[in-house]
Amino acid sequence: MDLYINPAQETWKAILQRPVFDASALQEKVAAVLNEVKLNGDQALKKYTALFDGVELNELAVTPDELVNAVQSLPAALKQAIAVAAANIKAFHENQLAGSEVIETMPGIRCWRKSVGIEKVGLYIPGGSAPLFSTILMLGIPANIAGCKEIVLCSPPSKEGTLNPAILYAAQLVGVTRIYKLGGVQAIAAMAYGTETVPQVYKIFGPGNQYVTCAKQLVQQQGLAIDMPAGPSEVCVLADNTANPAFIAADLLSQAEHGADSQVLLVTDKKELVTEVEQELTRQLEQLPRRDIAAKALENSKAIVMPSIEEAIALVNEYAAEHLIIACENEEAIAERISNAGSVFLGNYAPESVGDYASGTNHTLPTNGFARSYSGVSVDSFVKKITYQKLSPEGLQRIAGTVTTMAEAEGLQAHANAVTIRL
Ligand SMILES: NC(=O)c1ccc[n+]([C@@H]2O[C@H](COP(=O)([O-])OP(=O)(O)OC[C@H]3O[C@@H](n4cnc5c(N)ncnc54)[C@H](O)[C@@H]3O)[C@@H](O)[C@H]2O)c1
Ligand SMILES: N[C@H](CO)Cc1c[nH]c[nH+]1
Ligand SMILES: [Zn+2]
């Protein structure tokens, strides 16, 4: 990790940059794949699956036999863990479905708003380097609560042309309606445009690598809704002298192991803590099966010593991390002052990985500074909010003058007439 001590404010922006890659070359490559799928449908999907995933598929859809086998083959302990996680995620998200209260703005004029599930949604489940079946719970459960009717899922196949049984099990558990062996740009293209096999959806959800994220952004420019740019995972730990260096190192490594393009940050007012955390990182890294990936991510990562916790909070808000852990005394008071973060973990006993799997909050979160303006996925992401109104004859009489005066001032006589004709 690069170390910065008391950096001047003018340097923060440069220090807090995410790992950069050549976005122009990426966009060109992604746009070409999107276009080919749009033109050639399934044939292009199979071509790119062979090219990028190294497998020739005859069938893109998962078969009923594969679904049955997945349920049978999954260990009972994993099914039990998935059940506990799913129950917590359901409990947290169910509470988000807002009721439709009727507001009488004037006597005889009643207005209300109702959340209606987006009919067809597409879920992208990453699977390039790890089969993230937990993401199915994070997307499928709110989609279900929202009342989405068609829930399409795409995830990259293995070299043997299979999907991990845990992916197939979780998909069935949350009520996914169609499952396809498709990854990367080709998966996003299939759901965005539709092909002979894959139905077109109205909104695409889910995290992914740089190809997936770029494809989602390009189809958004073409008019399709997406959840948000949820790219390489990040965590920022804000720590003072009450923090435990071994816990911090474990938290940093938990996100570093996602991918070489992940970034983790330690921000503290205690210089010695950095040395202690670095020693722990070395010790814990050696024991990780994904140590090569995590070690690469640590090369993109930073430890920043600030003169005070006050300034550390300002820097953390500037960074807008996907995940923020506050391992400080007065963590609740500090949390009140956080204005930019995807999800916040308070105290020494809230490791970020509990949020990744099972505490109940959603792990599909904005990365790359997008937490300044985007929220993570919730039930809201899966609904449209339709407004309604009903007026009585007396209600219309009451508001007529207001509307006709305004319509005539805008020079829109037909608007005014639509009111006066009824009086
Ligand atoms: N922000 C969040 O909420 C969140 C949540 C979970 C995971 N993530 C992130 O999701 C990412 C998952 O990435 P992943 O790679 O493991 O899986 P992935 O499923 O996103 O990507 C795999 C696909 O990428 C495509 N691909 C690979 N190399 C390519 C190339 N050279 N050209 C074109 N396409 C190519 C392939 O089609 C492959 O199927 C990680 O970066 C992780 O940090 C983020
Ligand atoms: N940390 C990821 C979001 O950035 C989510 C995840 C899934 N599995 C493990 N972690
Ligand atoms: Zn994670």
UniProtKB/TrEMBL annotation:
Substrate binds at residues 233, 255, 258, 323, 356, 410, 415. The lineage of its organism: Bacteria, Pseudomonadati, Bacteroidota, Chitinophagia, Chitinophagales. It comes from Filimonas effusa. Pfam families: Histidinol_dh (PF00815). This is Histidinol dehydrogenase. Pathway: Amino-acid biosynthesis; L-histidine biosynthesis; L-histidine from 5-phospho-alpha-D-ribose 1-diphosphate: step 9/9. It catalyses: L-histidinol + 2 NAD(+) + H2O = L-histidine + 2 NADH + 3 H(+). PANTHER family: HISTIDINE BIOSYNTHESIS TRIFUNCTIONAL PROTEIN, HISTIDINOL DEHYDROGENASE HDH. Coiled coil: none annotated. Keywords: Amino-acid biosynthesis, Histidine biosynthesis, Metal-binding, NAD, Oxidoreductase, Zinc.
